[in-house]
What does this fold into?
Amino acid sequence: MREGKRRVLTYGTFDLLHVGHVRLLERAAALGGELIVGVSTDDFNVIKGKRAQYSYGERAEIVAALRCVDEVIAEERWDQKADDIRRLNIDLLVMGSDWEGSAHFADLDGLCELVFLPRTEGISTTSIKDDLSKGA
It folds into this structure.
């Protein structure tokens, strides 16, 4: 655990891990003393309409290997965030700015601080998958 007292939580699929993911996680970690990352399970990705290239176990292992990450938990459903915040004594929930205004965070008011960080320009898993499918 890094210096500081705040416990930070973030969530994501983290498929085809790229520099945008790493930068977001590093910035989230810098906001507190401990970073916990919820990685979406394969079943939850089906609910979200996503298909990951790597299994949950592989994605969780990759994220856990990053030095800025202290713990990885499974993200299994939309409504678990409030339970995770209480159970893990979270001070700060950090998400990418693409989630700002989402109804999935409306019930978290007063549970912890909520911060939306800007995405890294010019990179996304979707664009990587599109480039790969085109043979670019």
User: Anything to note?
Assistant: The longest strand covers residues 34-40.
